[in-house]
Amino acid sequence: MARHVIAAVDELPPGARKFLEIDGRPIAVFNIKGEYFGLMNRCPHQGAALCEGPLIGLAQSREPGEIEYTKLGEIIRCPWHGWEFDIRTGQSYCDPRRFRVKAYPAHVEPGASVVKGPYVAETVTVKVESNYVVVEL
After folding, report:
1. Which residues, including other chains, have CB under 8 Å from residue 109's CB and lie 6 or more apart?
2. Is residue 28 a contact partner of residue 41, using CB atoms and an 8 Å limit?
3. What is the pTM of this model?
4. How far is CA 103 from the centre of its chain?
5. Counting beta carbons within 10 angstroms of the beta carbon of residue 90, is it exposed (0 to 12), middle (13 to 18) or buried (19 or more)?
6. CB–CB of 28/19 below 8 Å?
7. Cα–Cα distance for residue pair 107/126, rounded to 1 Å
8. CB-based contacts of 82: which residues, under 8 Å, 6+ apart?
9. Strand runs (DSSP E) across the chain, as ranges?
10. What are the pLDDT digits (tens) for 32-48?
């Protein structure tokens, strides 16, 4: 799995989302209360730009007349037909066995590890001694 730098943490504050394309795939990255989640920006129903929809919560009921509102701001509603998906997992609440949106792991890494990368060139120590440049191998 290849790593892609999306943004500096300051550029994606809580409640924000960022749209991008990686390897030809439309993706949105969300900051939900300081946690980051990536989601394919395509509704599996009819292909709408899913992640442009509103963030809502989940209304659940254990018995008639009792409604509990949970996962506030963690459910995305498709702007075309209202299908709802959990941003954390991509799970559909309309038909969870048949429809799911691809979720991508997203997290914060220290800047030093991102900038350094896995490839490091071999270096040699260079010193200046009495007006001569000396390389040590």
Report:
1. none
2. yes
3. 0.77
4. 8
5. buried
6. yes
7. 38
8. none
9. 17-22, 25-32, 35-40, 55-63, 66-77, 84-86, 103-105, 125-129, 132-136
10. 999 999 999 999 989 99
